[in-house]
Amino acid sequence: MQSVIELHGVVALLGRFPALAGVDLTVNRGEIVLLQGPNGAGKTSVLRVCAGLLPIERGTGHVLGIDLSTQREAIRSRVGLLGHTNGLYLDLTVSQNISFWASTVGANQAEVEAAMSLMRVDGRLATVKASQLSAGQRRRTALASLIVRRAEVWLLDEPHAGLDSAGRDELDSLLRTAVASGATVVLSSHESERASALASRSVVIDGGRAQ
Amino acid sequence: MSTHSVSRITVSLAVARKDLAIEWNSKILVNQVAPFSAIVMVLFAFALDNEGILQRVAPGLVWLATLFSMLVVIQRTFAVESADGALDALRVAGIDPSAIFFGKAIALMVQLFALELLLVATAVVLYGVEMSALGFLEVLVTLATATIGLGFVGTIYGGLASAVRGRETLLPLLLLPVVAPVLIGATRATEAAFESGGAKVSEGWPWISLLLMFAVIFGVVGSVAFGPLIDE
Q1: How far is B221 from chain A (nearest CA, A)?
Q2: Contact A125, A88 (CB under 8 A)
Q3: B169 in contact with chain A, both atoms CB, cutoff 8 A
Q4: Which residue in A67, A128, B79, B214 has its CB near the most CB atoms, within 10 A?
């Protein structure tokens, strides 16, 4: 299997605090990998390193063959990170938000509408400002934005947070569909039962290391 | 899965359209900033309370009010980026930082230009300023060149201050000294256009050249420096 993410002894700092203290992680193409661990263990930092947002201080890291030590900006257009925030513009409508992200990658209106339909933010919701959405609706809008960006690696930090039961089922179904069409998913979730059922395998992160 | 290659200009225009759509939806410029600018001009009139003096100092008052209003607009344009982590999302999306820079600068320029037109109109009505046709043309060119410079430098310092605690107070402290050349150049050029204090219209063009130089310098600096400024 072709590896998409390879981290070897990765150390990353948040300020002067070591967020990762030597993480080893390999993720193959088409996998859904669940990062588990207590709060502050380093799950979010692993995702941010893979997204090229957090620099590597020591060790080596490659995502899609791109060296995270020397070319971390180059990886960003090929991965999609959904963190604790949704990355939405609260004064724009759902449709305007997704269309904006689509325009940054050259996606067309049909792709925008397909993503909105898939995440159930079409119809009346499309014209509602993001500031007026519920937490779950914002999450679904953010996921729709991720879909139109056509990311090859999806890095999802607590993607189930704020979604109702139906939304969680749809998200799981969406992730399986994305993987079937060639994407790779790394997610962290406190919904361990649901996420474990979804994931190909789990990796426990604790104290800034993969166990 | 594939990603299409999108030109920097396309992304810049998308960012500019997005910022202007945010303004169109929220009406902050129309409902809050523009009235604030007009109130500043009215207060200047109350404070000086002499038509002769007001006509003489009108160019400086227009540009001071522009700078004060600009601070509010810049704070706003970066507040929308940080409210739900959108700037982080832009960085993760791998969007060329220079495209973000030019896009945000264009949107800022459009908003500033509209404000400046309002302020000049207010000066004409409240302060009794008069202009020849050539003077009016010079005012428009002054507004355009000064706005480009202010848009670039405002975006640089807005981006710089956006990640810092206490950005509301830090931004004026950082920005106002840097835009002093624009204040001086634009005021002198506008004085010439208004023919304030016996100035001639032809005396304004060298100052406009200074404004143009300022705009070019900060356009180049911003396109290079904006990425590291907004990065971790």
Answers
A1: 20
A2: no
A3: no
A4: B214
Name the band, by pLDDT with cuts 50, 70 and 90, for residue B123.
very high
The SS3 of residue A6 is strand
- Cβ-defined contact of A86 to B21 (cutoff 8 Å): no
Q: Give me the interface pTM, i.e. the ipTM.
A: 0.86
Length reported for chain A:
211
Print the domain residue range for A136: 3-210
By the 10 Å C-beta count (0-12 exposed, 13-18 middle, 19+ buried), A180 is classed as exposed
The span from the CA of A159 to the CA of A84, in Å, is 8
Give the number of other Cβ atoms within 10 Å of residue A187's Cβ.
24
Instruction: Identify the residue whose tokens are 């002894």.
Output: A9
**Tens-place pLDDT, residues B126-139:** 888 888 999 999 99
Asked if B6's CB is within 8 angstroms of A106's CB, the reply is yes
Question: Which one of A92, A153, A158, A185 makes the best mutation probe of the B interface by having the most chain B beta carbons within 10 Å?
Answer: A92
Query: How many residues are there in chain B?
Result: 232
Residue B43 DSSP SS3: helix
The answer to whether B75 and B164 are in contact (CB under 8 A) is no
Choose among B1, B5, B14: nearest Cβ to A152.
B1
Domain boundaries of chain B, sorted by first residue: 8-230
Count of domains for chain A? 1
* CATH number assigned to the domain comprising residue A190: 3.40.50.300
Place of tokens 């994931």: A199
Find out whether B204 and B192 touch, Cβ atoms under 8 Å. Answer: yes
pLDDT in tens, B29-40: 999 999 999 999
Contact B104, B163 (CB under 8 A): no
* Cβ atoms of residues B104 and B16 within 8 Å: yes
Query: In the β-sheet with A58-63, what is the strand arrangement from edge to edge?
Result: A17-28, A3-14, A58-63, A66-67
Residue A75 touches partner B, C-beta closer than 8 Å: yes
